[in-house]
Write a structure and sequence with these properties.
- The protein is of the alpha/beta class.
- The protein folds into two domains: 321 residues, Alpha-Beta Barrel (TIM Barrel); 60 residues, no CATH class.
- It contains 15 helices and ten strands.
- The protein has an eight-stranded parallel sheet with strand order 8-6-4-3-2-1-10-9.
- Strand 3, helix 5 and strand 4 form a beta-alpha-beta unit.
- Helix 2 runs parallel beside helix 4 and helix 5 packs parallel to helix 6.
- The longest helix is centred in the C-terminal third of the chain and has 27 residues.
- It is globular.
- 37% of the residues are buried.
Length: 389
């Protein structure tokens, strides 16, 4: 295996306890792998060459653990982090597995459930900060409905807003160095989940009391479930200054949440995503929210983890080749060439510019007849990805 595709700490590759630790069960079958302890998972990701590990509160500490058990588990986990050099850049709260959250957490109709969700999240934030997390993700897996008769979406939005505002104030009051990242998903496990896309989350953030503290955590598979181009969502988040974290995996479009190994299915989508992140200089974690196929044993899980990172690094190398390819860059320059005859109309509005533009003659037929050479460009990209260039 080429050394150039070996992960290093400065690549900031991370995995969740729930990803490497996934035992391979699904809705139709029992687990096929032994459940690994959090300490074992830390050593697995360290062996694979990762930078960090992320967690839900109950990935580490069982929901019914007492104080003494919690202290022991956290101490053992910290020792494993210290022994391996693995860090915890991000944490989150499980507000979807327990039956108490069957109608949601922050948007539940039962006010006791909403209060419990806040309590659980504050305690989980404390734990995340204790472990070194700088980003805290919110995925509202149960924040939705199967029937719109059951819940008013305006009430649900108000409840979610109040919860995030409350937790922002909690972080500020405790002077934690922590930012929030909201993660969208269109459906599953609920029939419909509120704020289903990254764009919807960005609109919601603008309504918060402290929008500067809150960004997004787009997930590749979640946007692809809705048939969307993930890189476009990431670009919108970056343009808004809200790309606080990112979840990488792969997915067949419009299926259930498959969470395949990064790069395993949509090669061009994965390439253009990596190219975007590298070109703009994204400096955050590259988190792989995926899991090994159900066919795999413990060694297969390690293959999965190594494969996610290797695929990213290969595509990073392809990005450099794309940017250095003389024919591709010449074609892009031609496609995006400026035209001095309309240069005066670019930029900010002025009355004189608008009047001049209204009076300018355009050859509509010639505009329609011009070939854009996108077919050639796309084939060059394909050739490059296939190793022909």
């Amino acid at each position: 295996m080429s050394d150039s595709y070996q992960p290093k700490p400065d690549h900031k590759f991370t995995f969740g306890l729930w990803t490497v630790g996934n035992p391979g069960g699904d809705a139709f079958g029992q687990p096929v792998r032994r459940k690994l302890s959090p300490v074992e998972i830390v050593h697995v990701v360290a062996e694979a060459g990762a930078y960090g590990v992320n967690l839900h509160d109950n990935d580490l500490v069982p929901i019914d653990a007492n104080a003494a058990e919690c202290d022991r588990i956290v101490a053992e986990f910290k020792r494993a982090l210290s022994d391996t050099g693995i860090v915890v850049p991000m944490a989150t709260t499980n507000l979807f597995s327990d039956p108490a959250f069957k109608d949601g957490a922050f948007t539940a109709n039962d006010p006791k459930v909403r209060a419990y969700a806040l309590q659980k999240t504050m305690r989980a934030i404390d734990l995340g900060v204790e472990l070194g997390a700088k980003i805290y993700v919110f995925w509202g897996g149960r924040e939705g409905v199967e029937s719109d008769a059951a819940k008013n979406p305006l009430d649900a939005g108000k409840r979610f807003r109040e919860a995030i505002n409350f937790l922002c104030e909690y972080v500020r009051d405790n002077r934690y160095d922590l930012k929030f990242a909201l993660e969208a998903k269109p459906n599953e496990p609920r029939g419909d989940i509120y704020l289903p896309t990254t764009g919807a989350m960005l609109g919601f953030i603008a309504t918060l009391d402290h929008p500067d503290m809150v960004g997004v955590n787009p997930e590749m598979a979640h946007e692809q479930m809705a048939g969307l181009d993930f890189m476009h969502a990431v670009a919108q988040a970056w343009d808004a200054g809200k790309l606080f974290h990112i979840d990488l995996n792969d997915q067949n479009f419009c299926r259930y949440d498959q969470d395949f190994r990064f790069g395993s299915h949509n090669l061009k989508q994965s390439f253009f995503l990596v190219k975007f992140l590298e070109d703009v200089g994204y400096a955050g974690s590259r988190h792989f929210d995926a899991h090994a196929y159900r066919t795999e044993d413990a060694e297969g899980v390690k293959d999965f983890a190594r494969g996610c990172m290797r695929s990213y690094l290969i595509l990073k190398d392809k990005t450099a080749r794309f940017n250095a390819d003389a024919e591709i860059q010449a074609l892009l320059k031609e496609i995006n060439a400026d035209d001095p005859t309309v240069a005066a109309f670019a930029g900010k509005y002025s009355r004189d510019k608008a009047n001049a533009l209204k009076a300018h003659p355009f050859d509509r037929i010639a505009l329609g007849n011009r070939g854009m050479r996108y077919e050639k460009l796309d084939q060059l990209v394909f050739d490059l990805l296939m190793g022909i260039r």
